[in-house]
Inverse folding.
């Protein structure tokens, strides 16, 4: 297995030194001990791992971006991050809120005349953003999974539950939130994300549509049967699962969430909004895009919050009135998958640490959570 360590990160360590307990050999041993067996067990071609501790980032790159070319993974390799994209969408919506362009209590129909007279016409944006509008499904039905047909589906949709009572994880739900938030900014979603939000966060190589000049950096994904696959187009794909990024950019996004004081005022306020809990769902608090838990957290509790049951079935949602900012001692996370990629991001503000796991295979979320919990638990003992 090919393994590469970032020379730039190493040079930075030599120049600036590491915080006590964050010695190069210790973090390398901890990550290697978790990642190597995982890749072998899950037959993963390549992984990019990044960690940040006390404001310093380290990169650990494993395997290949493509089985055919044998090109090694680096911290600049582009991966599909699936539903981790929802945290970007939430940030865009919260940015529109910070600019006074929308309110989370606004009805969806205010920004979509297409919804007039439908059940969604009067449902608040907040409920779309937190998967609580009343039972929108995980995916669009095949016949509606196209930008030109999605509003016909939304107009015909009938709630299964009263608004704000059940959380049912849903691409159409948060996807529509992102679409309408971009409308409030008078920009297409792709333009608002790639030209405003991502640059504002300091991201240099993150895309909804990978440009041709960057295609050589775009990893090949592999399905569970080993066949090569990349994400295809669909209704609200950019908003729900469309970001392609690198471990270096994604850990920079984590650092922006850990230290938003370095951002401009609107993005700083947006980050605070995404770290606000609006519903309690079992042991998990639902923020905007992000999900969080009291820290320290047991592996069992973390697995329960990221389980198939939590993702695929309706869960009782208890509104938090007033909404509550995530405490510093919270584990904040998000999973993401496409047909050929698997991602996981977690950070703990009180410990000033975070982790990014990117793989060019869709492997079980349970295994991602186990590895991240193991690594961050070890780092917390510094």
């Amino acid at each position: 297995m090919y393994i590469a360590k970032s020379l730039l990160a190493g040079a930075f360590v030599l120049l600036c030194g590491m915080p006590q307990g964050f010695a190069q050999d210790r973090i390398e041993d901890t990550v290697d001990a978790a990642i190597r067996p995982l890749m072998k067990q899950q037959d993963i071609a390549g992984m990019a791992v990044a960690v940040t501790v006390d404001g310093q980032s380290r990169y650990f790159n494993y395997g290949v971006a493509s089985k055919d070319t044998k090109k090694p993974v680096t911290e600049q390799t582009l991966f599909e991050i699936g539903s981790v994209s929802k945290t970007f969408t939430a940030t865009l919506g919260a940015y529109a809120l910070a600019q006074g362009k929308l309110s989370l209590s606004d009805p969806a129909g205010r920004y979509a005349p297409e919804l007039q007279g439908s059940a969604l016409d009067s449902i608040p944006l907040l409920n779309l953003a937190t998967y609580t509008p009343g039972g929108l499904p995980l995916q669009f039905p095949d016949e509606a999974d196209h930008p030109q047909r999605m509003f016909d589906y939304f107009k015909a949709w009938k709630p299964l539950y009263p608004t704000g009572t059940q959380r049912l994880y849903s691409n159409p739900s948060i996807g529509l939130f992102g679409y309408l938030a971009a409308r409030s900014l008078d920009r297409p979603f792709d333009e608002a994300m790639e030209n405003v939000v991502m640059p504002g966060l300091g991201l240099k190589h993150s895309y909804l549509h990978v440009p041709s000049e960057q295609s050589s950096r775009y990893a090949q994904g592999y399905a569970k049967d080993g066949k090569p696959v990349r994400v295809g187009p669909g209704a609200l794909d950019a908003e729900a699962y469309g970001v392609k990024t690198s471990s270096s950019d994604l850990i920079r996004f984590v650092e922006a969430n850990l230290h938003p004081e370095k951002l401009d005022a609107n993005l700083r306020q947006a980050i605070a909004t995404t770290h606000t809990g609006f519903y309690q769902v079992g042991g998990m608090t639902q923020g905007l895009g992000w999900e969080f838990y009291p820290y320290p957290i047991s592996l069992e509790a973390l697995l329960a919050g990221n389980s198939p049951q939590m993702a695929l079935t309706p869960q009782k949602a208890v509104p938090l009135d007033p909404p509550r900012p995530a405490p510093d001692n919270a584990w904040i996370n998000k999973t993401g998958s496409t047909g050929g990629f698997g991602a996981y991001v977690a950070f703990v503000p009180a410990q000033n640490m975070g982790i990014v796991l990117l793989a060019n295979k869709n492997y079980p979320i349970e295994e991602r959570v186990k590895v991240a919990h193991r690594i961050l638990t070890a780092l917390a003992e510094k």
Notes: Residues 1-21 have pLDDT under 50 and may be disordered.
